[in-house]
Structure formats: structure tokens, C-alpha cells
Amino acid sequence: MKIGYILNTYPSPSQSFIRREMRALERRGVAVQRFAMRPFEGDLPDPADRDEKKATEYVLARGLVALVWAVFVMGLQSPVRIYKALFLALQASRGSEAGLLKHLIYFLEAAYVARRLGELQIDRMHAHFGTNSATVAMLAAEISGKPFSFTVHGPEEFDKPAAIALPLKLQKAEFAVAISSFGRSQLCRLVDYRVWPRIKVVHCGIEPQHYDAARPMPVSRPMTMVNIGRFVEQKGQLILIEALAEVTRRGVDVKLVLVGDGPMRRPIERAIAQSGLGHRVEITGWLDEAGVRRQIDNAHALVLSSFAEGLPMVVMEAMVSARPVIATWIAGVPELVQDGRTGWMVPAGDAQSLAEAITQLATSPDDKLRRMGTTARARVMVRHNIDTEAAKLAAHFCQRPRTQPV
Q: Is the pTM of this model over 0.85?
């Protein structure tokens, strides 16, 4: 089987889960051709991402002439399909935040992808995220006659399903994937119940071969927590700083390492300074996978203060490293983190509850934290082995194609 993966901006430091999935499929003998609309413009600290960039075909880099030529070529081969795809693009643009012009660009991109599917003898397509990459895959499927599927991660897709024509994509897709049962429930809300069997759950995963044994938890103090993610409102780092200030007022000795970067960096730095936490908070910027793993290994726990998520990879990476997790009761997170067994769960946006969980972490005996970490590692190894999850996805790819729409 040969599959074309349709991506928007790829690779980027926050999307290692896509790389892991594709490479796990390749280990199973599935040939994967990577198509992305554009490359990530920032730094790629991870060598694996730089390798992915070399292996990816960038559609927009081919230029307008190549895209228009693809429309002409595919139109000669199947004029009816081209007109149907153009009509579908117009349909998807109604009420869309992207508007008509962008959907016409998606149509051009789709024609190019459809042409390459034939040239490379690719059997089907799979897109990640329910946004423009899924739109391109849907239109390319209409032009080429080859099936497509896509994975929805959330939370952005759930915030604006009509604006990205998500119900239409769910109807048109051979199947759709959610990364958690919560995610699947949100997709089921958007379509007729007869479509529900085509909405699958396939988790993102970790590569167990890279985690042969967890490093022992540090015995030194202060108690160190790590937070990993983009510095944006929905990640809640400002609430985390507020909670940390409360904890230190109680006389609890803790340290926080923030791994990441983003538009909220300056407000976060101001909050740290105003709270007098400069000696307790370190900001590292983006790190490669090895750097992230070092920060997790050097910490006693991961703390996730998000207001909205899908099912974060950093939670899996902390748990497989035998570290307990403090996280918020949102989306698919409670499906993985068990309150009192593998960490602490708190209401999102509640700085006081977050401060209480941090206090409990800091005052827990070392043997309790080690037990929680061991339980966390066993749980993620069972639920989020990327080779197991890729096998599920490959099985869905091999199902008999759907011939009748609902």
C-alpha cells in the first residue's frame, strides 16, 4: 500500500506525533509520500524534523503555473471530476472563515496532489487536522477518485466546525480518526448517527524503543516541575505562574521549567517578574526531542495548565518517563491521567486548585511519587504504543472502500 499524507505546514517542532505515525506505518511496510502545502519557517532543532523536511514535497513551492497546469491535465483526463471538485470547493467555502479565494487555492493545490497521486501510483490519502489539509485531501479525492481519510486533533476544530466545513468532510471521508474517545464524541455531534461507525479512535503514541528504561526520579530539591508547549492563551501558563506564586507564599520550595515559545512569552515573562519568581522559573525556548526528554528526566513531574487540548503528547512523554502529571480536567486528558494514581487532575483555569495540587506534589513522599510514576509508565505503554496504534490505522486503510454515501 502507498499512502499520500496531506499536511499543511510540516514539519514543525510541535508535530512530532505526525512523524512518529508515518514512520511507524513505514516500519509496517506501508509506503508514505509526504505532501505539505508549505514548510515551517522557524528553526527545526530536531534532526529528525530536518530529515522529514527533505523527504516532503511542498505543493506551493511548485508555483502557480504548475498548479494551473495540473488543473488542465486532470481536466483533460476527467472533466466531470474536475467540475465536481470545483463545485465541492464552492460548497465548502460557504460560511467558511477561509472564504472563496482560499478555497480556489485549495482547489489548485488539490489538482496538483491528484496529479501526483497518479504519477506516483499512490492508493489513498490521509490528512492531519480537519482544517485546510483535509480540504485539499477531500478535493483531491474528488478529482482523482481515490479515497481519503483524516485525523482530527482538537481543540481548534471543535471550536469552529462549521467555519471549516467539518461536517462536510466527515460525510465525504472514507473514515475519520479522533485521537481520544472525547474527540470522537465531538465529531459524532456533527453528523448523522449513521456516519458514527466511520469515526474511529486511534491514539497518538510514543516510540517504546526510545524509552527502554526510565531514569530514576531526582532526589534533590527543590521539587522541579516542567511545562512544555506553545506560549499561547489556551495553554494557561499565566494561570500556572499565578498558582506558583501562591505556592511560594505558603513556603513550599518549588521550581518550574517552561519549555517552548510563542506570542505569550513577553506577558509570561512580565508575570514572572511581577510575582518575584525569576529565581524559580526558567524558560528554555524550543528544544529538540532529546532536550525535552532531558528536562522531563530532570523534573519530578509534568504540569499542564491548559484550558483546551486534544490529548497532548507531552503527557505521554512524561508518563513513559515515569513522572506523575498535574493536568486539567479537559478533553481526552482524563482518559490517560488518573487522579490519585498517575497524578492530579484540577479544574481548568482554577489557580487555587492548581496551587493545591502543586503543594500536594511537593509534600508527597518520594516513594509515593515513584509509585505514581511507575503506574503512569505502565499505562501509557499499553495505551499509546505508536506501533500498536499505527497497526490500527493501517487496518482501517485496508478496509473495503465505501461505495455508497450515507
A: yes
